[in-house]
Amino acid sequence: MKKINRKKSTKTENKKQKRRIIKVVCLIVAVMITSAGMYLGFGIFKQVEGFSKEKLTSDESSVLCTTDGEEWFSVARGGVQKNVSYNDIPQVMIDAVVAAEDSRFFEHNGFDVPRIVKALVGNIAAGGITAGGSTITQQLIKKSYYPDEEQTIERKIGEIILSIEATSQISKEEVLELYLNKIYFGYGPQTVGIYAASRYYFDKSVQNLTLPEAALLAGTLNSPNRYDPFRNLDLAQQRRDTILDLMLQHGYISEEECEATKAIPVENTLKSNPISTSGQYQAYADKVIREVQETIGYDPYETPMRIYTYIDTDVQKQLDDIASGETYDFQDSRIQVGAVIQESTTGRIVGVLSGRDYTPLGTTYAYASQTGASYGQKNQPGSSLKPLISYAAAFEFLDYSTAHYVHDVPYEYANGFVPSNWNGRKYNGDISISSALSNSWNAAALQTFSEVITGKDCNGNDVGDGIGIDGATQYLESLGFDMKGESVDIGYAIGAWRQGVTPESEAGAYAVIANGGTYIEPHTVQKIELLTTGEVIEIDQKYQEEKTQALSEESAYMIRDIMTDYVKSGTGMYSMLNLGYQIGAKSGTSNHADDTSVNEKIRGQNKDAWLSAFSPDYTWSVWTGYNAKDQKKGYYTKSNRDSNNIATMIAKFLHEDGMKNSYPSQPSGLVEASCVSGIYPYVTPGEGVPDNRVVSGLFKKNNTPSGSANGSSLNNLSSFTAELADDKLNVTFTEYDPKSMTEDATPTKTYTAGGNSYTLPYLGNINQLYGKVVYKVDIADASGNVVHSETLNSATGTINYTLSPGTYTVTGYYAFESGNGTSNKISQTITVEDTTSASYTRTALTESSVTYQVTVPAGTSITASLNGTNQTLQQSGTITFSQLSAGTTYSVTFTHTQADGQTVTLGTDSFMTTSQTQQPDPTQPTTPTPTQ
Question: Any stretches that span the bilayer, and where are they (predicted)?
């Protein structure tokens, strides 16, 4: 038997075992490689199976433009998009891009093997994928199919396959066109695509790009953020010059062109960007976008469209400069502002100020959503809507006149709350509507709105058919106010709204006054052109066709007449707007609650400040205040300074070129007439009605003054005496009967509200038209001129006037304190004697003349006679006789005519004139002795 070698056998078995293990491992590896390959291949297949040229095409952005078609804003979440055809791209741009990104672009089939090998070697050396070696076609595929994916082998292979497929289906020119319309040229979405980049950097069309501009754009493609010249000017300059070297290297430009272009600084080619996705005109653009989204049913971000707007870029820039603080210094850094400007007769909004530090599609203080979106802040209007809510409504529904007197008396709510006027609890009684409005009296506005709703005044008198709460709500809706969430009560007249209003809604409502009562919904859009279908949607035409008559022409004219009048004659904030443009305006201020529901710092303090105004051309409204967060921190509006100043700035730059339009003329349904103030129904003033109780105004033809109020007669005066005593003039009348008529003061009425009583002027009783009876004294001199008049409240008195010597006529009579009517008149003559003595003194004597100083008592005269020549003085002075003969004796006689007409000879003065050589005798008496 052969011997078995066990050691050898064991080795052989081990070898077999190793071979089996190796086979199994190889099999497993093969299976793994096959599986991985199958998985990788399936993944790549899934990527490339849906290739479509349409996927490579960039969707165009929606564009905002003026009514003339000039583009000013582009709407795009991913950046400005407007596709440019290959034929509109200059050759210099093509050359620069090819030289910079893919020098063999027109030769390879979508991917470049040498570039990929070079990139592969680099990746191996780096131990990972750091470079792709992508061609232009591959970059287009990546941007279209893999915009957000990481670099992987699977994605890279799919990119290559798709690039080859793209090259087989579309031309090189189409690839370049698609690429340049999709790629980033700098930092941010505003540089996406060659169209946006040309505008962003150079403010020019693509077809007008020059060599230095093309090289700059091509240079950014390698690293858009890094080489954006607005962010890294020096790096952008270096990169541009590198591209120029590449263009020279590949034969696209000459060495002379290369060096000459390098000498041009990049900053010399850059300009500001007129088409923006943020910043300039952002506030207006967002208003347009939101308006289209909410009212038209299209989203400019999703549906490419061309939107024609009514922006006035000059106006909008002015508003943007105010908001940024460039042209206006706000009272503090936290206060916010909102404003809207629209054309008065069209509803077309030309400018929007959404707030300070406004961010795209952020919170706006200029307008609010009509669909419940929370981007807009409404605010309490304060007194800013009094003209519309109280007085225009009274003209409209009660047919009041502009001469109507309203009642500024306390109004008590059901809970006992009595609102005060802005100056405390001072009420003014019966006052004109103009006074009520220009002084913004709260109580008058409350009482008038109550009359509109109830048809009764505070004295219980019927004043017309009240419209009720429902009618008042409908009226406010007709003016464009959003009444959802509101619950109208009397407090709305002074700004106590549940939700509040916006500058847009106030501007739209006040435009009704300037526009003859017609309301047109405020809007920014003229029309929309859908870029995908070419459909045109006429927006403005719809609004013009749907305009409504919110106020009659007559009511609109009447409230406009009052508002423009008090601006012309006003002081303070209204005088600021008196610029000669027929502006009407109303300010307003609201207050925080005066209870523990608010921060103690702001309790009872001012909250909102408004000024809304209109002219024949424009209507604008400005609000200033704080956002809700700042209010909780204790910020409150310390003054109306900002709202008033900004509204005035707006008025000035809107009308710097003068007025383009004029208001509608006075409607035929109005007449001018006069009535007695405070009396309703209106009464025509008759003879004797006091001037201060006659008022003129505009009346609707169906409610003009009627009847007549005539001056009331007074009792006859039976006796009147006037006498001097100790140089004082005392007078005595027969006491008027009844005596009570001399004791009644200005007519008043007492009102009770909130447990307090208020006695206030009341003009509603025609029997008290002329006030109380007084005693009148007139004093006339000898010539009949009245030198003094005095009114006495009692039948006897001493006249507060000193009579100089002379003769006077003193007349007494009864009269009304406020009126032209008088009783009969009784006159008495009073003579005041002068105690001064009559005298004369010779003061000069020459060879040919003599002069006397003469003292004449008041009310008398002195006559000097010489040889038939007379000279008379009625007051003290000098008398000179001349042309006398030298050395001759003369006699002058002086006669005194007294106050009662009697004459007395004062004396005769005899003298001899001097000879030519003789001097006067100094011993001669200078005061001759009078002779009787």
Answer: 21-45
Of 282, 307, 281, nearest to 295 by C-alpha is: 307
Q: For residue 685, what are the contacts with CB-CB under 8 A and spacing of at least 6?
A: 674, 675, 676, 693, 694, 708, 709
Buried/exposed 402-436: b ≥16 CB within 10 Å, e otherwise: bbbbbbbbbbbeeeeebbebeeeeebbbbbbbbeb
SS3 64: strand
What are the tokens at 744?
């009644």
Residue 56 has a pLDDT of: 67
Beta strands in 62-182 (DSSP E): 62-65, 71-75
pLDDT of residue 438: 94
* Residue 19: per-residue pLDDT: 63
Largest CA distance in the chain: 214
Instruction: For residues 139 and 146, give the distance between their C-alpha atoms in angstroms, rounded to a whole number.
Output: 10
Q: What is the distance, to the nearest Å, from the Cα of residue 816 to the centroid of all Cα atoms in its chain?
A: 48
Burial environment of residue 267 by CB neighbours within 10 A (0 to 12, 13 to 18, 19 or more): exposed
Strand ordering across the sheet containing 618-625:
349-353, 336-343, 618-625, 606-614, 584-591
Amino acid, single-letter form, for residue 843: T
Indicate the residue type of 790.
E
Can you read off the two tokens belonging to residue 385? Answer: 């809507």
Determine the straight-line distance between the first and last CA of the chain, rounded to whole angstroms.
212
d(CA 698, CA 705): 11
pLDDT confidence of residue 121: 63
Using CA atoms, how far residue 208 sits from 89, 92, 384, 755, in Å, is 9, 10, 53, 81
Q: Give the span between the Cα atoms of 650 and 670, in whole angstroms.
A: 33
Indicate the SS3 state at residue 758.
Answer: strand
Report the C-alpha gap between 626 and 605 in whole angstroms: 12
Q: What is the pLDDT of residues 216-249, one digit of tens each?
A: 999 999 899 899 998 899 999 999 999 999 999 9
Contact 756, 780 (CB under 8 A): no
**Cis before 738? omega within 30:** yes
In whole angstroms, what is the distance from residue 874 CA to residue 894 CA? Answer: 13
- pLDDT confidence of residue 112: 67
For 494, other C-beta atoms within 10 Å of its C-beta total 28
Tell me the C-alpha distance between 842 and 878, whole Å.
10
Res 563: pLDDT? 97
Query: Residues of the chain whose pLDDT is less than 50?
Result: 1-11, 24-25, 28-29, 31-46, 129-131, 273-278, 922-932
pLDDT of residue 846: 94
Give dist(CA 670, CA 672) in Å, integer.
7
pLDDT of residue 756: 92
Q: Distance between CA 562 and CA 435 in Å, rounded?
A: 10
Q: How far is CA 498 from CA 421, 449, 635, 646, in A?
A: 21, 17, 21, 27
Residue 41 pLDDT:
44
Neighbour tally for 365: CB within 10 Å: 24
Going from the C-alpha of 110 to that of each of 41, 396, 408, the distances in angstroms are 20, 77, 86
Please give the full DSSP string across 546-592, using - where no structure is assigned: T-EESS-HHHHHHHHHHHHHHHHH--THHHHT-SSS--EEEEEEEE-
pTM confidence score: 0.68
